[in-house]
């Protein structure tokens, strides 16, 4: 998008924005401090989320979807140009084919994007692969299958190194579908040994993120089924191994904010896959179902990271993991980034001093009032101001529509474009 489109759009909305921003500045003393944090905060967009997703019952293409990695980078560059908060990309191998890492790195840099965690894939059989992952990968009873999966992960590290990524996310579909199918201890030991081999290949400045998930595709047991199991692996592996929290990967009603708080306390929280869900791993727009939960998670993050003196922007891997069945994926991602920025801002607005006192005094009502006051504060003008100062659009979604971006992408790429990943 040309720069003057953003400028024109911003001019049109400036007076209205200023009025709302002046109001919030008059109400709160530390708005500038909040803005300086928002300016630094960036989210990674998953390369697999910029095309239409689908379910096993079907997929309905929106058209104009990226056909290769270069086009995915272009689309994420567009998001970043609009909101200036999507400055990273998370790749998935082999869904993303990197033909020339030098050129890919340069292209990403052109759009001011860096590479966040690389994702390996041992949950599907790939063409030409010798062994099948039908009964697991790193947990498999057959060492040759495990070895194949280990080598794939090491290959992903190599590819990531060439792009300047500094982390590897491992999500395993490993587990069992029926009672008796698996010896749990042996599956754990095999997985641990496999992870140790991958860990040994990890560069010094890299992190390994171990993502857990309660169920699916296996429906009886998951070999990295919850944060306890992920933490066991991470602790046994060493200082470079961390737990990754995907918000959709818990059993119903889990207290995710408490999990986050304790992992952070143990220096074992690696990062996030943000999304929202109503039932399971729904991969819906962040904040669309449980915005209060998203706020409470950020409340723990801000409190916990501040207690440790960890920089919010660089301390964790901030990634989105989403899938879009009925929305334009780019519009949905703009909504997700906005929801995350709002939750983060609200968490920064919590009167932490007052909350600590209320907690010490067991003033339960006051504790709730303090949190809900922050949650119910309309902080949209603060997020908008931070975005404007970074050169983004006042209203990214509105400008995306005004500019008819999807129509332009369909004209360039065609209306029958294929799915990326799941
Ligand atoms: C799967 O449920 C996990 O969320 C993983 O993060 C997965 O690799 C990603 O969603 C791509 O499918
Ligand atoms: Zn995930
Ligand atoms: Zn998932
Ligand atoms: Zn998910």
From TrEMBL:
Gene Ontology terms for molecular function: isomerase activity; metal ion binding
Superkingdom of origin organism: Bacteria
UniProt keyword Glycoprotein present: no
The protein's name: Sugar isomerase
Keyword Manganese part of the UniProt annotation: yes
Keywords, in A-Z order: Isomerase, Manganese, Metal-binding
């Amino acid at each position: 998008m040309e720069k003057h489109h953003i400028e024109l759009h911003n001019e049109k909305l400036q007076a209205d924005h200023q009025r709302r921003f002046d109001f919030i500045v008059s109400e709160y003393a530390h708005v500038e401090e909040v803005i300086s944090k928002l300016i630094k905060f960036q989210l990674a967009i998953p390369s697999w989320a910029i095309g239409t997703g689908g379910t096993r019952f079907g997929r309905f293409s929106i058209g104009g979807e990226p056909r290769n990695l270069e086009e995915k980078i272009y689309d994420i560059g567009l998001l970043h140009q609009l909101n200036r908060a999507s400055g990273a990309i998370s790749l998935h191998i082999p869904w993303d084919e990197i033909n020339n890492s030098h050129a890919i790195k340069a292209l990403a840099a052109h759009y001011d994007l860096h590479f966040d965690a690389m994702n390996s894939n041992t949950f599907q059989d790939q063409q030409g692969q010798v062994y099948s992952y039908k009964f697991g990968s790193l947990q498999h009873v057959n060492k040759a299958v495990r070895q194949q999966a280990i080598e794939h992960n090491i290959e992903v590290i190599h590819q990531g190194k060439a792009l300047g990524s500094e982390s590897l996310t491992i999500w395993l579909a490993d587990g069992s579908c029926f009672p008796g199918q698996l010896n749990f201890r042996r599956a754990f030991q095999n997985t641990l040994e496999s992870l140790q081999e991958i860990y040994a290949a990890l560069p010094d400045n890299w992190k390994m993120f171990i993502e857990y998930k309660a169920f699916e595709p296996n429906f009886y047991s998951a070999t990295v089924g919850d944060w306890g199991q992920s933490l066991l692996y991470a602790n046994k592996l060493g200082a470079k191994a961390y737990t990754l929290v995907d918000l959709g990967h818990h059993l119903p009603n889990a207290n995710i904010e408490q999990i986050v708080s304790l992992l952070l306390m143990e220096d074992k929280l690696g990062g996030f896959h943000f999304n929202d869900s109503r039932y399971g791993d729904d991969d819906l727009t962040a904040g669309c179902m449980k915005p209060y939960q998203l706020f409470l998670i950020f409340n723990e993050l801000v409190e916990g990271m501040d207690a440790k003196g960890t920089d919010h922007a660089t301390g964790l891997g901030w990634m989105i993991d989403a899938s879009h069945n009925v929305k334009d994926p780019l519009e949905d991602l703009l909504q997700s980034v906005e929801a995350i920025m709002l939750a983060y801002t609200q968490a920064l607005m919590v009167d932490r001093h007052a909350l600590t006192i209320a907690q010490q005094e067991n003033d339960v009502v006051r504790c709730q009032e303090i949190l809900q006051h922050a949650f119910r504060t309309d902080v949209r003008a603060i997020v908008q101001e931070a975005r404007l100062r970074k050169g983004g659009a006042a209203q990214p979604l509105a400008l995306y529509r005004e500019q008819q971006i999807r129509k332009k992408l369909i004209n360039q790429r065609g209306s029958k474009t294929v799915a990326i990943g799941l």
